[in-house]
Amino acid sequence: MRGLRFSYGGLLEIYSRLGVGSNVFSVWRSGPWDFCSDSMVFSDNLDLVKWTRNSSFHEGHSLEVPKIQHEISLLVADWSLVVPPSLDQQGLVPIPDVVKVPRDVPWTDVNVFVDAVIRGEFGIIVVLVLDRSSSVIEVATAKKKVSSPFVAELAAIHWGCCRILQMEWRNVSIFSDCQSVVNGLSAGFSPEWRAPGLFDITLNLLKLLPRCQLQWIPRRLNSGAHDLAAWAASNSCYKLFSPREVALFVATMNFGV
Predict the structure, then answer these.
(1) pTM
(2) Domain 108-252 is in which class?
(3) What is the 3-state secondary structure (H, E, C) of the chain?
(4) CA-CA distance, 116 to 128, in Å (whole number)?
(5) Which InterPro entries match (predicted)?
(6) What residues in the chain have per-residue pLDDT under 70?
(7) Structural domain boundaries of the chain?
(8) 123: exposed, middle or buried (Cβ count in 10 Å: 0-12, 13-18, 19+)
(9) How distant, in Å, are the alpha carbons of 92, 128, 137, 240, 251 from that of 243?
């Protein structure tokens, strides 16, 4: 990674943002004189660190310094390859062109995939509903102010439960890639002190749902919901999509997982 260095000077700032210990390296930009300064700090430094933190959080792992260093360096190397989606020229909301549909999950009559991404103080949540044949039943996105990534993921599950009740779906599975939320709801105890009200409401909703099961799946099997959440955040598009928009989405889905 020519032109990039890890500076010890950024440790305290990065760790204060992570809310953990004291040995994380910050990503800096070096100038033509081969030195680093505060004015050259990556503007996306915080985004990279948050992405790595959330990745560990989703998989239920504790924050490990070598893992954080490695993933941040990979993100920096690939940062220039990220291309934001373009607006649809026909006036339709440009739902992502390709979304992978997981095949190695236990399918039921209705399958609700939920996810959330964090943007500042807000969580962008998504509900992606598929039938047993992988056809899209419903796609919805929303923006909600949250106090933590845990609350955002919990809000996504809560919204999925609400849609199930409103639509009166039966034999339903809810899939989330946030292991701490799924484990907490399964055990009936919230590991996040900032979410007692929403946690209890969601737990009660799950008890009311007929023939409904909540399951954890790894991030790679939830790429459809995750990509939609990231896309909605980039395009500021928060809505329940129309049948016409969903039809376009179905036509461009990638079923080869």
Answers:
(1) 0.61
(2) alpha beta
(3) CCCEEEEHHHHHHHHHHHCCCCCCCEEEECCCCCCCCHHHECCCHHHHHHHHHHHHHHCCCCCCHHHHHHHHHHHHHHHHHCCCCCCCCCCCCCCCCCCECCCCCCCCCEEEEEEEEEECCEEEEEEEEEECCCCEEEEEEEEEECCCHHHHHHHHHHHHHHHHHHHCCCCEEEEECCHHHHHHHHHCCCCCCCCHHHHHHHHHHHHHCCCEEEEECCHHHHHHHHHHHHHHHHHCCCCECCHHHHHHHHHCCECCC
(4) 12
(5) RNase_H-like_dom_plant, RNase_H-like_EbsB-rel, RNaseH-like_sf, RNaseH_domain, RNaseH_sf
(6) 1-104, 243-244, 246-257
(7) 8-81, 108-252
(8) buried
(9) 12, 13, 9, 10, 12
- Opening angle at CA 123, ends 118 and 124, nearest 5: 95
Residues 158, 122, 84, 50, Cα dihedral to 10°? -100
Largest CA distance in the chain: 66
State the amino acid at position 152 in one-letter form: A
How many angstroms separate the CA atoms of 232 and 114, rounded?
A: 13
C-beta of residue 94 within 8 angstroms of C-beta of residue 87: yes
Pairing of strands 26-29, 4-7: antiparallel
* Phi, psi for residue 219 in degrees, rounded to 5: -55, -40
